[in-house]
Amino acid sequence: MYYSEDDVEPKTVQIAVIGEPKTGKSCLCHRYLGGTSLAPSGGTQGAEVMAGQCVGLRPAVPLQLCDVAGNALQTHMLANYLYASDIILFVYDLTNLQSFEKLKEWIRKVKEIFENEMKKPLMALFGNKSDLEHQRAVRLSCVQKFASEHLLENFKGSARTGDMVSHAFTSLVARALGLKVHRLPPTVVDGRSPAPKELELNGHAHSEPMQPLIMNRKALRRVQRKASSTICNMQ
Q1: Environment class of residue 117 by beta-carbon count within 10 Å: exposed (0-12), middle (13-18) or buried (19+)?
Q2: Domains assigned to the chain
Q3: CA nearest neighbour of 104 among 142, 69, 49
Q4: Which run of H or E residues covers position 154?
Q5: How many other C-beta atoms can be found within 10 angstroms of the C-beta atom of residue 138?
Q6: Which ranges of the chain would DSSP assign to H, the alpha helix?
C-alpha cells in the first residue's frame, strides 16, 4: 500500500489498545509490531508504550502503541494513558461474553475523557481469538449492533495466528491520516502469504506482495518453488 504526501515526513500515529484483562491486548500489539503473539507473562501493569512502524503504508508510518492494563478502567490514570491518542482500539475476547459486555463501561469512560476535546480519536472494535470461533460466546448480531450504536469500526481476528491483525491496524492508520483505502489485501496467517492482489489508494492502483517480514527456510523454499512453477507455466 502506498500514499504520497509530497515527501513530507509522516506524523507519528498514537494508538491506545484498551479492554478487559486477558483479552489478548498485549499479544495483539506484539503480533503487529514483532510478528509474534508472545508477550511478557504476568499481565500489563499500568500501561506499556511500544514504538514501531506501519509498514503496510509507503513510506512507513511511525507508530506509538500504548497497551493499557485491563484494570486501568478503575484508576484515575486512564486519561493520562489515552492522552493525544489518534486511535483507540477496544479489544474483547469473542469467547468471553463478559469481556464484551464490559466495553460499555470502557466506551462511556473514554467519551467522558474526550468530551471537551476538539479532536476526537478514531475508535474501533476488535474481537480477538477468532481462531477459537467454535467457542464463540458473543453473538455476531450483538457485536454489529454495538458497533453501529457507538460508530465503531469493527474488526475480528486472532493475535495467535496473526489473522486480520495487520489489516485492522493498517486500515485504521490510513483512515486516521485521511487516506482513502479502497481495498486491502488479506493478511499473512501462520507464516503463509496469499498471492499479491492489486489494491487501490486515493484513486491509484498498486500491486504489492504480501510476504511475511521474517521467513524460515522452509517457507522461503516454498515461495521460491511457487514462483519458479509460475514462470514455467507462463513460458
Answers
A1: exposed
A2: 13-234 (3.40.50.300)
A3: 142
A4: strand 153-156
A5: 19
A6: 25-34, 78-82, 97-101, 103-113, 140-149, 165-176, 217-234
| Amino acid, single-letter form, for residue 71 | N
Q: What is the pLDDT of residues 107-139, one digit of tens each?
A: 999 999 999 999 999 999 999 999 999 999 999
Q: Residues 27-64: pLDDT tens digits?
A: 999 999 986 666 555 566 779 999 999 988 888 999 99
Total Cβ atoms within 10 A of residue 145: 11
User: Is residue 137 helix, strand or coil?
Assistant: coil
**What digits encode the pLDDT tens for the residues 144-173?**
999 999 999 999 999 999 999 999 999 999
CA 62 to CA 159: how far, in whole Å? 21
**Which of 153, 164, 104, 169 has its CA nearest to residue 130?**
164
Q: Compute the distance between CA of residue 202 and CA of residue 27 in angstroms, rounded to an integer.
A: 32
132 phi and psi, to 5 degrees? -110, 35
Whether the predicted pLDDT of 98 surpasses 70: yes
User: What's the pTM?
Assistant: 0.73
Residue pointed to by grid coordinates 522452509 = 218
